[in-house]
């Protein structure tokens, strides 16, 4: 939750938080766009099994209901959730919505919209509070994208861009998201930054599907346009995003791609997809302009990044080279572990 500066106060080009700040200023100064981001923090609460049973995690609740709660959840999980929400409120973080998500032990805390850098500062603070309060209750609260497969755990970012009247706004939003979607495979290297992140690249799991597409009220695409109750509350939900990234870096990459879309006046070639792209015929998909698949592994995303000269130009080769080098070294380290050790290692840390 800090930025790096050179001794003379200039921005360190490798600082993700500083580069995001710079990108948001360019959106405001060059395109008169005010941006807000609201994160949906999905968390899986786990118990650690007894040492006799081996070092492993089990979900907090065994009888679990989505959007409502079973007796077990009300009795065993709710006291911790109340404690967490009170601790967040004490820190000035007011949860906009809270609900029981689809997976066992999975709960969602929706943070209010804020300017992007502030939203990420709050995201990290909120996550630390949630994880620390859980620890006091003897639990592990993890952002791991799939602690208990096949259910996914995400950290969706709801982006709203406001600028001028409705038609100016519409045009700018379209160029911004045309930029984002045209670089999406490469952006996944930042937004889905671990091998396990790709468990969520699946159809029919509400996790954002497998096709590069956007759609109004569509949960099976990586970018969902969410119509608000009035023109001002509309937002775009980036769904191909989990709790594993450096979120400053992930949002820097997304906003830089959007900014490039605006600078170049990139045309949106994808039409609004309001159904599940995997259930459309090939012809119907092509009619909507849907032709590209989301990478299904980190190595594919990193290759897409290495091949995306346009994105490398806006992020800077120094950022991309360091990032790719770091990811390769990290994956080599993780690949030395057996599957169970790696799963526990990641669940302990994220
Ligand atoms: N847990 C789902 C995911 O991994 C998201 C469910 C939702 O909030 O739409 O993407
Ligand atoms: Mg959710």
UniProtKB/TrEMBL annotation:
GO terms for molecular function: glutamine synthetase activity. Residues 16-350 form the GS catalytic domain. Keywords: Ligase. InterPro entries: Gln_synth/guanido_kin_cat_dom, Gln_synth_cat_dom. Signal peptide: none annotated. It holds the Pfam family Gln-synt_C. It comes from the Eukaryota. The keyword Ligase applies. Belongs to the glutamine synthetase family. This is GS catalytic domain-containing protein. It comes from Cryoendolithus antarcticus.
